[in-house]
UniProtKB/TrEMBL annotation:
It holds the Pfam family Caleosin. Residues 238-275 are annotated as: Disordered. Belongs to the caleosin family. This is Plant seed peroxygenase.
Length: 275
């Protein structure tokens, strides 16, 4: 047997399985930063850097998976309608076309499993209480089957795929991760996982587009699991819009002053000549 690269007392790799070294587990000191890292959390999404999860959680009575979509329920009635989803994407800064397509994909595929009746609801509502029923395959398994958050699985995401830096995943590493986690014949899972990370990349990816130097930070990935990222992005979008309004008003004021100056100065000049 071969010990892992961190020389931990517990064997996590063997020579007969090269895949173990290709996708290593975190060192034990990473797990030790999170109390009882192997126990899924009902309403917190902790990491080694944030062992107590997010300080700005909006719905502590929700599971982490429920918190993930609570942003799209602005009236807090426990139901997300298609127009709520569309509005939520727009509030985060997505264009109309992408928001509409996201709304269609999400509600056409995920509304019915959350309903309590066998008769489909034509309004395609998603009931937050049953959101765990739409957990799909080929994902990271960071949510368990009841919507809890698994800290150990989250840390393993970065030890396995974060080869470039410890606090982020590059575009190449995300593609590698999505490919590695595919389950046979799970077409819906493949598509859903790709669209989830593609959307996340559009929302908070850093660097140049989808190039080798682009990445998503570990903290942003963690915060999207408990939904706090969405509120953060909404605030950022509101600030951007406010700055745009202020710049527009400033430009309008400058234009008005310039026009006023062009009218007043010739008049003053003519008056001066007459005197």
């Amino acid at each position: 047997m071969a010990k892992d690269a961190h020389k931990d007392p517990i064997e996590t790799t063997v020579d007969g399985a090269p895949v173990h070294k290709a996708y290593p587990l975190p060192s034990t000191d990473v797990y030790e930063k999170i109390p009882h890292a192997g126990i899924p959390r009902a309403n917190l999404a902790p990491s080694a850097e944030h062992p107590n999860g997010s300080s700005d959680i909006h719905h502590k009575n929700y599971s982490v998976l429920q918190q993930h979509i609570a942003f799209f329920d602005p009236d807090n009635d426990g139901v997300v309608y298609p127009w709520n989803t569309y509005s939520g994407f727009r509030r985060m800064g997505f264009v109309m076309s992408y928001s509409f397509l996201a709304m269609l994909f999400i509600h056409l595929n995920m509304a019915y499993p959350t309903q309590t009746s066998w008769i489909p609801n034509p309004a395609l509502p998603i009931f937050i209480a049953n959101i765990h029923k739409v957990k799909h395959g080929s994902d990271t398994d960071i949510y368990d089957s009841e919507g809890r958050f698994r800290p150990d699985q989250f840390e393993e995401l970065f030890s396995r795929f974060g080869k470039t830096r410890k606090d982020a995943l590059t575009a190449t590493e995300v593609r590698m991760m999505l490919s590695h986690q595919r389950r046979p014949w799970d077409i819906f899972g493949w598509i859903a996982c790709f669209l989830e990370y593609f959307t996340l990349w559009l929302l908070c990816g850093e660097g140049s587009g989808f190039g080798s130097d682009s990445y998503i930070t570990k903290e942003n990935i963690r915060r999207q699991y408990d939904g706090t990222l969405f509120f953060q992005m909404e605030a950022k979008e509101n600030a951007r819009k406010q700055q745009k309004v202020e710049r527009s008003e400033k430009a309008k004021k400058a234009t008005t002053n310039t026009a006023h100056k062009k009218v007043v100065e010739p008049v003053q000049h003519m008056v001066g000549k007459e005197e």
